[in-house]
Design brief:
Shape: globular
Number of helices: 6
Radius of gyration: 20 Å
Structural class: alpha+beta
Number of strands: 10
């Protein structure tokens, strides 16, 4: 079910989601506690952190919050479609187009590589929200580098903002079964990357699941690794 969030008119994706979740869970934003500043701290002690990329940067903060007895929800917005609006430096429209790229749930995998030891911790929940987003760009007279110098090549535009357009779906990951569900339903008892029939994601999916771990490597045949779903993975967290 698609839900358009137009209650808030914030200028950034992160701030909009922060306000949305603060209202949803009756929490306060930007609360200093335990030596941290939490995005949201609720009356019942729940901590909610919202991170649009580089989830591993929150690993130590989440570990500490869990150690101090908090329940933690990490919210990650997964972008399904992006509308790109470009203006010139004076704010005059240049273009308005829909990016051809489409996201899917497996795009979270690279973000999870730095969190594998946390994913199944008691009192931790990863909440993935699939969204449509608007990205605002400003056309520059000449190709430029970003302030954090991440571009391989200079381009003639700068990204100035990301804005939430629609919230499409919410999916929580907190049990072993939630992560097993990322595997295709029709798999042999012993399987390899090729059996997953998703060349783009198979190897990183198996890597993440084997480190939680909800799958176990049984052996290799040539250069191919084979796995089975761990019997204990069907049990509760």
């Amino acid at each position: 079910m698609t839900k358009t969030i137009n209650t808030y008119n914030e200028s950034s994706l992160h701030n909009t989601l922060k306000l949305y979740y603060a209202e949803k869970y009756n929490g306060q934003t930007e609360v200093e506690a335990d030596g941290h500043i939490y995005d949201i701290l609720c009356e019942d002690g729940h901590v909610i952190e919202i991170q649009t990329k580089n989830l591993s940067k929150l690993a130590d903060k989440i570990k500490d919050a869990l150690a101090k007895g908090h329940k933690v929800i990490l919210v990650y917005p997964l972008v399904y479609r992006t509308r790109i609006i470009t203006t010139d430096e004076e704010g005059k429209p240049v273009s308005n187009r829909l990016s051809p790229k489409k996201g899917n749930i497996y795009d979270i995998l690279r973000e999870l590589t730095g969190l594998t030891e946390i994913l199944l911790k008691r009192n931790f929940t990863l909440e993935v929200i699939t969204i449509n987003m608007v990205e605002h760009r400003v056309r520059t007279p000449a190709p430029v580098q970003t302030t954090n110098k991440t571009r391989r090549y200079k381009k003639n535009w700068l990204k100035v903002n990301k804005r939430l357009d629609e919230l499409l779906e919410t999916k929580q990951f907190k049990s072993k079964k939630d992560y097993i569900a990322l595997l295709p339903k029709e798999l042999p008892q012993e399987f390899c990357a090729k059996d997953l029939k998703m060349p783009r994601y198979a190897h990183i999916l198996l890597w993440v699941l084997s480190r939680i771990p909800v799958i176990k490597q049984t052996g290799t045949k040539g250069n191919t690794k084979y796995y089975v779903i761990a019997s204990e993975a069907w049990q509760s967290r």
